[in-house]
Amino acid sequence: MLDYGLKNRELFPETKSDGTVDIDLSSGKYTKVWQGPNHPGITGNMSLELTLLGDEVMESKTHVGYLHRGFEKLMERRRFINNFPLVCRICVPEPDFNEYCYAAALEELAGVEVPENALWIRTLILEMARLQSYLMWLSGQVGAFGFGIPSQWMLYCRDRVLDMFEELSGARIYHIYMLPGGVRDNLPKGFKAKMRETLNDIVPLLRDYERVVFNNAVFKKRAKGLGYINPDWIEEYGITGPNARGAGVPKDVRKDNPYLKYPELEFLPVTETDSDVYARAHLRWRDVMMSVDLIRQILERTPDEGAFKADLPSMLHWKIPAGETYVNAECTRGEYGYYIVTDGSGYPRRVNVRGPSYTHAVTLAEKMMVNCNIADVAATLVSLHTYPPEVER
Amino acid sequence: MSWKDVLYPFSVWKNILKDPVTIRKPEEREGSSRYRGFHINDLEKCIGCGTCEEICQNAAIDLVPVEGIVAKPGDSGLRPRVDYGRCCWCALCVDICTTNSLGMSNKFRWSVEGENADKAIDREKFGSPDDYLFVIGAENKYWDNSEMGYRKPDNYDLTSPVRVNMDHLSALERQDSFIEMMKGYSKEQAQREADRCVECGICTAACPAHMGIPAYIKAVREDDMEEGLRILYETNPLPEICGRICTHKCETVCSIGNKGEPLSIRWLKRYIADNVPSEKYKEILGTDKIEQNGKKVAIVGSGPSGLSAAHYLAMMGYEVTIFEALPEAGGMMRYGIPEYRLPYDQIDKDVNYILSLGVTLKTNTMVGKEITLEQLKEQYDAVFAGTGLHMGRSTMLENADHKKVLQSIDLLRKIALGEDFYVPEKIVVIGGGNVAMDITRSLARIQRKKYGRVNITATCLEPHGGMLADEEEVVEAREEGATITPAYGPQRIDIVDDENLKGLEVAKCLAIFDKEGRFSPKFDLDDRQFYEADMIVESIGQGADLSYIPKQLNDNIEYSPRRQIVADPDFQVKNQPWLFVGGDIVKGPDVITGISNGHLAAVGIDRYLNKKED
Question: What share of chain A is helix, strand, coil (3-state, %, to 5)?
Answer without folding.
Answer: 50, 15, 40
